Structures are given as C-alpha cells and as structure tokens.
From TrEMBL:
Organism: Kribbella capetownensis
Entry protein name: Class I SAM-dependent methyltransferase
InterPro entries from the UniProt entry: Methyltransf_25, SAM-dependent_MTases_sf
Keywords, ordered alphabetically: Methyltransferase, Transferase
Domain Methyltransferase: residue ranges: 45-137
Pfam family, any one: Methyltransf_25
Positions in coiled-coil regions: none
Top-level taxon in the UniProt lineage: Bacteria
GO MF: methyltransferase activity
Any one biological process term the GO annotation gives: methylation
Length: 251
C-alpha cells in the first residue's frame, strides 16, 4: 500500500455529484479527443480510474481500456455504469500494481499522481507506467502547476476555487512539497460540510526527471487538453512522454 488516501464509501457515493463540473462535455470531450488518437488501435491503461469519468467515454470511442484503482468503493460505483468485460479494473495502487498485457497508452488525469505523497512513490508510478508500455507507447498525465506564486509572505493559504456552494483553499509546505486542499460545501439544509485532501505537488521539470529515470522521453507538453501552449503562466499541464521504440527497459 502506498501513502495515498483511500476513498471510502461515503466519498465514492458523492464523487460524481461533487465533481459534476469535471463530467461536463466541454471539460471531458477535449481529454477524450486528445487520448483516443494516442491509443490508436492499441490498448490503454488508466491509473486511478475512479468511477470511470474518462475511461468509459474512451471505451465508447472504441479504445480497449483497463483500469487500476486503489479504492474498491470507487470501482463499485464504476460497476453501476459498465461491466468488467467491457472495462476491466484491478484494485491496487498505481505505483506497484501490474496488469496483464502491453499498452500503447498509459494515462493519469486530474492531478491524481499527486495522491502519491512521497517522491519515491511518484518515481515508481512513472516506472510502473513504463513497464506497461509497448515500445513507442506514451504516458500522459494531467497535473496542476503549484500556485505558490500566489503566496505572499505570511499568507498560509491560496484560494483555488470559489463557486456557488463550493470553496477550495490550498495550504502548502514549501519544504516538503506537501499540499492540503480544504473543501467547504454548502448543503441543501444550509449547513456546511468540510473535507480535506492531502497531496505532494510536483513541478513539470521534476516530472521530466522522473520520466527520465523510468526510461521515458518528453514528447509534448501543453497548457490544456486543447493543446494550448504551455507557458510560465499556465496553471496546469498535459505532458506526454514516449517509451523509445528501441524497447529500452526501465528499472
């Protein structure tokens, strides 16, 4: 077991509702449009597949998708939508769990690699992706750029999302690269519900070094799924690393 938090039944039950904005077509379609051509006629493996937000529509595009997911309750929610024959999922962590087969694409979306809360585990995640890739295959991650530039001296938190009924503040430990996201939801009865998630943030250049340790080469980096340029002002990145076609083995 890695240091990732395991989402329980209550969190899994609420997930699709509390994350509804990430299921919107204008958010989801560009991600699927980006990933499907990279898989091509080959198979795809999603780390941290969750309730199938991306894996299910990618399967609907004709891509053979397999998933790895740490939370059994999240897999149970996915099973309400699609059966195991259509989209097989193995319960396990993304740093060490292996599944049979060789894949043209391994992908990890919506900042999920940060759920691994040590650098060692994050390096092992890259290595695990490389082990599953066929020569010439790609590893793709979607990851936010830490918002530490918003932190003036003495300010402990950064507002990340302020919406109707949901507010998010992030606190950072700059020495350890640990981050906590503090979520506040306004419930229908007027009460407020609080939840927190704990992460380790990673800089893009650090990701590239992890990829290099896994035997992968940076191929592309964009600011979003629509392939906008990645700049110093980008708040997230879509990065694509390629396993050399010569078939070099990772550690």
């Amino acid at each position: 077991m890695t240091s990732s938090e395991v989402w329980d039944d209550d969190t899994a039950e609420r997930y699709d509702t509390t994350s509804a904005e990430m299921f919107a077509r204008d958010v989801l379609d560009p991600a699927v449009d980006f990933l499907a051509p990279l898989a091509g006629p080959g198979a795809a493996l999603e780390f941290a597949i969750g309730t199938g937000r991306v894996g299910i529509p990618l399967t609907a595009r004709g891509v053979s998708v397999t998933g790895i997911e740490l939370s059994a309750p999240m897999v149970a929610k996915l099973r309400h939508k699609v059966d195991n024959a259509t989209l097989p999922v193995v319960v396990g962590d993304m740093a060490t769990t292996s599944v049979p087969g060789e894949f043209a694409l391994v992908y990890l979306v919506w900042n999920s690699i940060s759920n691994l809360r040590t650098q060692t585990e994050q390096v092992e995640c890259f290595r695990n992706a490389a082990r599953h890739l066929a020569p010439g295959g790609r590893f793709v991650i979607e990851l936010w750029v830490p918002a530490v530039r918003r932190l003036p001296p003495g300010q402990p938190a950064v507002p990340m999302s302020i919406g109707d009924g949901h507010i998010v503040f992030d606190t950072y430990d700059l020495a350890t690269q640990q981050c906590t996201s503090h979520h506040y939801w306004r419930e229908s009865d007027g009460t407020t519900r609080y939840g927190a998630g704990h992460f380790r943030y990673i800089w893009p250049a650090e990701c590239d070094l992890m990829a290099q340790l896994a035997g992968l080469e940076l191929e592309d980096r964009f600011g979003d799924w629509r392939r906008s340029p990645f700049t110093s002002d980008s708040e997230s990145h879509i990065s694509v690393w390629r396993k050399p076609a010569t078939g070099l083995k990772s550690d």
